[in-house]
Amino acid sequence: MLTPLQEKKLVHYFNVLDFDKSGTLEKADFLNIGENLSILWGFKEGTPEYAASIDRCRNTWTAFRNFIGKSDESHATIEEWIEFADMVVVNGDEELYEKHVNKVMREIFNLFDLDGDGYISLNEYIDLFMAYRIEIRYSARAFTKLDLNQDDLISRDELLSGIKEFFRSDDKEAAGNWLFGFWETYLKN
After folding, report:
1. What are the residues whose beta carbons fall under 8 Å from the beta carbon of 104, sequence distance 6 or more?
2. pLDDT of 47 strictly over 90
3. pTM
């Protein structure tokens, strides 16, 4: 069973992914995120970079919809998202959980480690906020909280730690709570 704090963070994450703010997650949300990334990085439509950006986001949708057993053109409600997160991610099988959080970490690095140095810089992290239309004013605070060794870079281990805290921690002060910006205002409808 999710705690109220965990549910609040998961509702925030749902709202981050719900690009068109329709109240459901669907393939178009993920494709729009891919298009937003392409625009952000100056990839022109029809180029291999543009196609790769769209494909990475399409694959994220495919993996999620496979988890919840939906068809490619269907959608997921907030209730389905919360049930999925509760049963699979937060309180599910440990092996499946580890697989999921590692996949989220790899996806973030694949999308935002633009220079391929194995770290997420502040500018790359700001790109994450811009791509997902998260309030940019929280990006520096979130970055600082996730940069555990304060070297001005987020390593794979630091990001993985933050992702794990985001999904499972019930500590209001946990650094990982800030993974996708300020979350405290979100309540389940």
Report:
1. 163
2. yes
3. 0.85
